[in-house]
Amino acid sequence: MINVDSTAGIVTTIGSEDSNSSSNQTNGPLLTLVGHERRGRGGEPLDDLSAARVIRDAPIIRDARLPLYKGSMLRRFYFVLIVFTACCGFHRNVVEDVSGDHDLSIFKLQSVQGLRDGDHLSVQVGISDSSSVLSVSMRFAVGSPTKLESGNWYWTHPESTHMDNGEVAERSVTFLGGQDGPPSIGGSFDLLTPEGTPKYRLNLPVTELKR
């Protein structure tokens, strides 16, 4: 069941209704939207890919209520709004400061290159604000699912000789590709300090790799 807030006109929860008419109870929301934050049934935070999957897989019930107004055209409009929110509404910067102390929205994705060798994929990502450069190298084991095997990141700052660096930890990975075309890779990754603490977060959109 998809519920729409009758005041704000935005999706608030997505859940499934119990098919047992004698109990007439709900299983609870599969997804709750609180501002830009997505939470699962157990209250756990969801990343973009997980939230989109929940919305994609949520059952559509014939008498799903869109209580704002009557009329098929308006119902269609809100249905399109829901789908658009699922696919495009969860925008994130390509790199984020995990602590939230620094706004890194000026940094843009400059390049994504990679090469597949059998069941392994090597990827190099370049991010920059036109002065400092963040370079991320990752090696994936291609399979079902594709997993990050290892990764390292380096951030050079032109105003000093200091260079931040550390290892990369996987949060989620999306891999697309067959034998007939170039592979595509995306996902969410934590850039760790030398002590192993997440310092930055890389939000890599699914991108076709170029050599």
Name a few traits of the molecule.
four-stranded antiparallel beta sheet, 2 domains, mainly beta, 46% strand
Mind explaining what this structure looks like?
The strands form two sheets. The chain has an eight-stranded antiparallel beta sheet with strand order 5-12-11-10-9-8-7-6, with no helix packed on it. The chain contains two helices and twelve strands, in the order ββββααββββββββ. It is 13% helix and 46% strand. It folds into two domains: 2-88, no CATH class; 95-208, no CATH class. With 211 residues, the chain is mostly beta strands.
Helix/strand layout:
Layout: E1 2-4, E2 11-17, E3 26-34, E4 37-40, H1 48-57, H2 72-88, E5 95-97, E6 108-117, E7 120-128, E8 133-141, E9 147-156, E10 163-176, E11 184-192, E12 198-208
Antiparallel strand pairs: 1-2, 2-3, 3-4, 5-12, 6-7, 7-8, 8-9, 9-10, 10-11, 11-12
What would a concise description of this structure say?
With 211 residues, the chain is mainly beta. It has helices at residues 48-57, 72-88, and strands spanning 2-4, 11-17, 26-34, 37-40, 95-97, 108-117, 120-128, 133-141, 147-156, 163-176, 184-192, 198-208. The chain has an eight-stranded antiparallel sheet with strand order 5-12-11-10-9-8-7-6, with no helix packed on it. A four-stranded antiparallel sheet has the order 1-2-3-4, with helices on one face.
